[in-house]
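Changelog-adjacent note: as of this version, every example in the card shows the full chain rather than a window. The one below runs 197 residues end to end.
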Amino acid sequence: MTGKILGAVAAGVALGFFLLPGWVLDYTDLIIDIGLMLLLFFVGIDIGMNRSVFGRIRNMGLKIILLPIMIIVGSILGAAIAGVLLGMPFNESGAVGAGLGWYTLSSILMANYSNELSTLAFIANVVREVMAFIIIPLVAKKIGFLEAISPAGATAMDTGLPIISRATDSETAILAFITGAICTFSVPIIVPLILNL
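Full-length structure tokens:
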């Protein structure tokens, strides 16, 4: 799976660099949205066909929110520690980690604070998403299914969901969607709070 992901990215770079005309860029957002909706549609079919999953999820109760909380806390603390080692203020590096992989929103939220920090948030969260695509199958295979949700952060409910679903099982895919949704809703709240510490 990891090889296929890297191969797809490399093929896209080569195609964009050597073959496609510039006007194609006008339609990339639409093409990406259609592709993402198709991926999520088929993940939904896979989840829906396994009816017993919903009962097991319901039995988990409030434990479901522990995973996104730990992902949020771990992301912020990890980024803050890395920032301190790099000589950055705690609140700035923590806010970058609080982007949870949502590079478009986190960079916009930091734009009024600092252009440099906005750029760093964009790059850091893009790298997180790409690295998540690469390591999710490895984490699922070597460590565990629940742990495979963590690298995706907020993207576990959209771009990361098909990869998580393929590398794990239907129950984990539902947990990934819930986790991604909670992380996504938390980004616009947590990033400004941390920046203002």
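Structural remarks: DSSP finds nine helices and no strands in the chain.
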